[in-house]
Design a protein that fits this description.
- With 726 residues, the protein is of the alpha/beta class.
- It has 23 helices and 27 strands.
- Strands 7-6-8-10-1-11-18-17-12-13-15 form an eleven-stranded mixed β-sheet, sandwiched between helices. Strands 19-20-23-24 form a four-stranded mixed β-sheet, sandwiched between helices.
- Helix 9 packs across helix 14 and helix 19 packs across helix 22.
Length: 726
């Protein structure tokens, strides 16, 4: 049983950010997000009349002058690699995309830190995170009169959509045994999640923690309704701190960070992206205009507390990533509160910005998105421009505050003291959060590499669920190495050897230097290598292919025999870690092979037949390691059909494993109920779940029950049963 690491009494150990992942409008990776921030891009999508109709809105919605059709939309939210995470297509269809995206980003955050997400069961890894509104259930699932999707029912809807199960779902799928807590605090959710993760690490309760949030508004392509005096922008543009600020814009987004104690991160050779020096959380209480209104003094207090816990003065901070929703009252109150907390820094000392004009108000994800922005700014030694800012807000006298705004990017170079920043959020309900960040300390000096011996090679293993995904991995890695020539090849090899999950399809690139690795990866990406057994051929430096046999002229015969055995499906590792190397680097993450998992909202209820519209169609049989074999008789067909109804899959084969298809105990109960209505014999879930859990095995167990029952049937009943099974 994994448990946290007890810390020495009185120890002070900053928390390091070692990995991060995002899915945002116009950005699938942190690198994409940085390019958009640097360019001042507004990642907006406009909805057509057809989009509104497909969203189930009445015809009058298209003519409504209050309908704003532009907002930041996350493309591809309906796509998910269900089989990768062990979900049946039917379960994936009814799972809130916010949960699916958070799960994918959790995997990516761990991989970006250099860790195999499926190899952490022996450590205390915690998960803290939350979601936005459950609008997928409200707009897509609930309106359907019948169950939304094959095999779906109230329990599946609850498990797939309730925010309670967001963090536990990640812990279950990745086998993480630390605390797993869903956090719901409005727009402060993900920053509160970071605060809780930091506390869990500093008390020794966790050894590694994931923290973040996910928000996707449904229906996605329907815009929103602007109301005079409301919080939403009248034109889809967020103009934070600007004279033209008139409201925020609802934006989709997901962000997850991986955190560790700095001492542990350094000892393990983790990539340290930045340090968290102090965090604080409080609430407004009742002393304000109303439940939805922000307050000044509590925001001042939470910022001051975070600075005090960090042991820093306001003048020690260079930049403040504000909540900055673009609402006239909210912006003015926020600046007033933060100006009081940072007053001693002096006028114009800190740059002030926010990401919301770029991607909108991502609700539960907003604080974590702000942290990612700051970490990217530290890495690139530059502060991006504040998008949509032209003239100062008339109710904010910036000359009397410690802050300055600019529409242009500005350099943020390393200096004599560490660069520092803070991230601030507040939300409806009054929860405020403040986090103080600092640039990563210089990495420990790398030991001198051993003198290269003749024929010494670096083994770069790649592994995925399909040949196409292996090729995609090779293409991604080649592109990354081209963009980052500073990455040591031995550290790349160490990260791939120790920080990636192992799957059935495998390849191993063997290279003596960076040029050889790039050449071999390009060959592999293009599919130009012969297959060898269940894996791929081993590649020699220079891009040539070799079958799985060591060549005496090549030099490192033992190493070659070990990558070859692994590629051919062996249980061992592809190679031993390079001598003296213990450094993980940020590399591309797994190339998920997503398919559409979606229950469309019903058409407008005023149209004939809309209320009974079908919610979804079965998915084709997913790719499995075993080949398809058709049912051999009518009983196997009945069993396979009952499985398909529960799993949302058509064309299930007689040798397909229930669990490989995404089955679980609730779906087994559904299958059992279906078969009880067809067969005149008692049956329960054990008939399905016993080995082997295949349609053929299930049918054999039912066949035994049928033979036993035949003696009790009349001739007519036996004839009817025979006809049913013929």
């Amino acid at each position: 049983m994994a448990a946290g690491t007890p810390l020495p009494a009185g120890s002070v150990d900053p928390v390091a950010v070692v990995g991060m992942a995002v899915r945002l409008p116009g950005a699938d990776t942190p690198e994409d997000f940085w390019r958009n921030l640097r360019a001042g891009t507004e990642s907006l999508t406009s909805s057509t009349d057809e989009d509104l109709a497909e969203a189930g809105l009445p015809p009058s919605a298209a003519a409504d002058p209050a309908r704003v059709r532009t907002r930041p939309v996350l493309e591809g939210a309906e796509f998910f690699d269900a089989a990768f995470f062990g979900y049946s297509p039917g379960d994936a269809d009814v799972m809130d995309p916010q949960h699916r995206l958070f799960l994918e980003c959790a995997w990516e955050a761990l991989e970006s830190a250099g860790y195999d997400p499926r190899g952490l069961a022996e450590r205390a890894v915690s998960v803290f995170g939350g979601t936005g509104p459950d609008s997928y259930f409200l707009h897509h699932l609930h309106p359907h009169r019948r169950a939304a999707g094959p095999g779906a029912g109230p329990v599946q809807h609850l498990l797939g959509n309730s925010a309670d199960f967001l963090a536990p779902r990640v812990s279950y799928v990745l086998d993480l045994t630390g605390p797993s807590v869903t956090v719901q605090a409005g727009c402060s959710t993900s920053l509160v999640a970071v605060h809780l993760a930091v506390q869990s690490l500093l008390t020794g309760e966790s050894d590694l923690a994931l923290a973040g949030g996910a928000t996707v508004y449904f229906p996605q392509r329907a815009g929103y309704v602007h109301r005079e005096g409301g919080v939403n922008s009248p034109d889809g543009h967020c103009r934070a701190f600007d004279a033209a600020a008139a409201g925020t814009t609802p934006g989709d987004g997901v962000a997850v960070l991986a955190l560790r104690r700095l001492s542990d991160a350094r000892a393990a050779g983790d990539p340290v992206l930045g340090l968290i020096r102090g965090t604080a959380v409080n609430n407004d209480g009742g002393g304000k205009a109303g439940f939805t209104a922000p307050a000044v003094d509590p925001q001042t207090d939470v910022a001051a507390e975070a600075l005090a816990l960090a042991g820093l003065e306001p003048a020690d901070i260079d930049y403040l990533e504000a909540h900055g929703t673009g609402t006239p009252m909210g912006d003015a109150l926020e600046v007033t509160a933060l100006a009081e907390a940072y007053a001693s820094a002096g006028p114009g000392r800190l740059r002030l910005g926010t990401h919301k004009p770029n991607v909108g108000d991502t609700w539960a994800a907003a604080g974590a998105v702000g942290l990612v922005k700051v970490l990217l700014s530290l890495a690139h030694e530059e502060l991006p421009p504040l998008a949509n800012w032209q003239r100062p807000h008339p109710e904010i006298d910036f000359a009397r505050t410690p802050f300055r705004l600019a529409a242009e990017a500005s350099a943020w170079p390393r200096g004599e003291r560490p660069r520092r920043a803070a991230v601030h959020t507040f939300g409806i309900g009054g929860t405020n959060a403040h986090v103080v960040l600092q640039e990563a300390p210089p990495a420990p000096a790398r030991p001198e590499p051993p003198a290269p011996r003749a024929g010494r090679v670096h083994v770069l293993p790649l592994s995925a669920r399909s040949d196409g995904a292996v090729r995609a991995q090779a293409a991604r890695l080649a592109a990354h190495l081209e963009r980052h020539p500073e990455l040591p090849l031995d550290a790349v090899a160490f990260t791939l050897l120790t920080g990636r999950a192992r799957f059935a399809r495998r390849a191993a690139v063997l290279a003596g230097d960076r040029d050889g690795a790039l050449a071999a990866l390009r060959v592999l990406a293009a599919g130009g290598t012969p297959s060898y057994g269940p894996g791929w051929a081993v590649l020699r430096p220079g891009g040539g292919a070799a079958e799985a046999a060591a060549e005496e002229s090549y030099g490192d015969t033992a190493a070659l025999r070990q990558a070859a055995a692994w590629v051919a499906g062996g249980e061992g590792e592809p190679a031993v870690a390079p001598d003296g190397v213990r450094q993980r680097v940020v590399l591309p993450t797994y190339p998920f092979e997503r398919a559409r998992h979606w229950v469309a909202p019903p058409p407008y209820a005023g149209e004939p037949g809309a209320a009974g519209a079908a919610a979804g169609q079965p998915h084709p049989r997913p790719a499995l390691e075993n080949a398809y074999a058709a049912p051999s008789d009518r009983l196997e067909e009945l069993v396979a059909g009952a499985w398909g109804d529960a799993l949302g899959i058509s064309g299930i084969g007689r040798d397909d494993n229930f669990f490989d298809l995404g089955g679980h105990s609730l779906l087994a109960a559904h299958v059992t109920a279906t078969l009880r209505g067809v067969l005149p014999v008692p049956t329960d879930a054990t008939d399905l779940l016993a080995a082997p859990p295949t349609p053929a095995g299930h049918a054999d167990r039912l066949r035994d029950r049928l033979h036993t029952a035949l003696g009790a049937l009349t001739d007519d009943e036996a004839a009817a049963l025979a006809a049913k099974l013929a």
